[in-house]
Each structure stands twice: as C-alpha cells, then as structure tokens.
Amino acid sequence: MTELFGKCLHLRGQIRYSDQVRERLVNRAARRAPKPHVTVRYLEADFAEMFVRALGGLGPDGLEDARYRGRELVRNAAMGGLALATGLRCQEFTYLLVAEIPPLPCAPARLPILFPVPASVAKGGKFRTTWISYEALAGVRRYLELERPLAAEGSQWMPPARWG
User: Fold this and answer.
1) Residue pair 53/63 in contact by the 8 Å Cβ criterion
2) Mean pLDDT score of the chain
3) Do residues 15 and 73 share a domain?
C-alpha cells in the first residue's frame, strides 16, 4: 500500500534483523537499489576446493594425480588459495609484493585475518582492507619460506638497481 506524504512517495516495507520482522513506512527515494551492472559471483565451496587441489596437482580425492605434468605445484595452489580467499582483483593480485603479505599469527585463528591492499595497486589508488583465512595465509607463507627460496636457488637474475 502506498501513501503520499508531502512530495515523497512512501510504501510499507519489512525491516528484518535476526529473527525479528517489523513493518514500517519506507521512503522509496532513500532506499538503495542494486546497480544492474554489478555481477559479483562466488565459486561454490566444493568447486573452489577442487580448483585449488587441481592447481596443486591433486585429483578430486586429494591424492596426487600421476598424469598431471605441471610445475611449481605448491606455488600454484598457494596463489590460487590466496586469490580465492582474499577476492583480490587481477591488477591487485598481479602487482602484490612479498613484503605486502601479512605475517602469520602465532596461533591458528578461526576468524579471518586482515589483509591490507596498498593504494599503489588497489583500484582507484585507494587503500582498502580485505580478509584472508588462516589456512590460505599459512599456505602462502609456507610457499614463501620453503619452496620459493629453493626454486630461486642458483639463479643469476637480480632486480634492476632502480627498483631499490
């Protein structure tokens, strides 16, 4: 049912909080409407898990797939888990530096861990904070501390001096 108060068109709307439902007059002009171009999609949990396993050279059952011929499996799985857990945009993920990965907390946490996204790589140059699960962060940290030094051992490549 709509009613006209002054110049604003009001309607009865439901306000929900927890298990409580209340009806009240709502100003239609003040209600936020979703933008039609926004299409955020999430992967189902079982598909995301299978995706990270596949990046790590594992089959759907979690066992090593003997037919898989990829390289850098630990890196691939860690970075896939990081991208899924944080929701970083492609640009943010591409230019993320090792120093910008947060440290692992001393004890495993059930709550997500803050993951700052620097302004230099964030959309619009605006600093933002997102979240990462303890398990995903632990996977990235294990890769950075164990596998990465082994993969880079003996390499002659050095970053240019102008990079600092």
Assistant:
1) no
2) 84
3) no
